[in-house]
Amino acid sequence: MDEVYALLAVKDGWYDVMEYGKSKPIGQVFLNLELEDLMKIRVVCETASAEYMYKIFGEFRTIIEPLGCSYQDSPFDMDIVFRCREASCGFKTFQRFSKVKNILHVEIAFNEEDIIDKLKAEQRFIFGHTTYDFLSETLLERIKNNDVQPFLNELRSSMHEMRWLEDEVDYSNSFEEDFV
Questions:
Q1: What does the DSSP assignment read for the chain?
Q2: Mean pLDDT, to the nearest integer, of 31-59?
Q3: What pTM was estimated for this model as a whole?
Q4: What's the number of domains the chain is made of?
């Protein structure tokens, strides 16, 4: 039997996502209790040992979650789950829509063996392009009118500012990021 727990929050903030039987959180989620009519975007990151993943996706949270606050009357909320696990776990990248909850659930899977030995700049490059490509494809498929394009333009611009969508790996800060 799977164990289930509920997170009851009394104020806005980051909360750990726990897995039964483990002492360390497997990710974090931001809950904003005040936003009723705005697009809510929740990001969860799960990794076994990818050293930079939490740091990199912490950067991504600062980009994506505030964007949701910019879009009133959104057709749905969005959950984004990043999984970086061994290939043997069998996680796949996919999306599904819950009509009952009006939530687009997106899971983006990364094979830990493919990125574990890479520098942070290389991981950011892989994560950035994979994430933007899948999110834009998914949103364009789900939202047939032009309402999604301003969101995607703002997301792309913000990701460029954070060096997530460079044309090639930016090694200019690798020493400071990886070894300091």
A1: ---------SSSEEEEE--TT-SS-SEEEEE-TT-SSBPPEEEEEEESS-TTHHHHHHHHHHHHHHHHHT-BT-S-EEEEEEEEE-GGG----EEEEETTTTEEEEEEEEEHHHHTTS-HHHHHHHHHHHHHHHHHHHHHHH--STTHHHHHHHHHHHHHHTTSS-SS---TTHHHHHH-
A2: 69
A3: 0.71
A4: 1
